[in-house]
Automatic annotation (TrEMBL):
The keyword Transmembrane helix applies. Keywords: Membrane, Transmembrane, Transmembrane helix. This is Major facilitator superfamily (MFS) profile domain-containing protein. It comes from the Bacteria. Gene3D superfamilies: MFS general substrate transporter like domains. InterPro entries: MFS_trans_sf. Residues 83-115 are annotated as: Disordered. The keyword Cell membrane does not apply.
Length: 115
């Protein structure tokens, strides 16, 4: 996680340096706060990763498996989840209406006038 955080910060600093060299000091007015925001976000993610991993390990040790596998073993249905019904196809009509294949008896060729 630390390597990934360092890589993200390196790319952000590199982008800011390239923008500074290309556009001059006004880039720092926007890029400086953005760089601080990236640094705070990465710091928060690094600090919360360890407790999240410990919680996941503790939950896995308590149930012996992932929460999704144990839900299947409990018999929970797939149609009761957060995205249930999202990908379902709406019901379609049972059949097509009757279609006339042959022309009716009073049909006339195109361009012919009725007399």
């Amino acid at each position: 996680m630390a390597r990934l955080a360092g890589m993200v910060m390196g790319m952000a600093v590199g982008a800011l340096v390239v923008a500074y060299l290309g556009f001059g000091w006004p880039v720092l007015l926007l890029g400086g706060p953005l760089l601080v925001g990236v640094a705070i976000t990465v710091l928060v993610l690094v600090l919360t990763e360890r407790p999240r991993a410990l919680l996941l390990r503790r939950r896995a040790a308590g149930t012996g498996d992932s929460p999704w596998r144990s839900a299947v073993e409990r018999g929970d249905h797939a149609d009761s989840g957060l995205m249930s019904g999202f990908f379902e196809v709406s019901p379609q009509p049972a059949g097509l209406p009757a279609q006339r294949i042959a022309p009716s008896s009073d049909a006339r060729p195109a361009g012919a006038r009725r007399q």
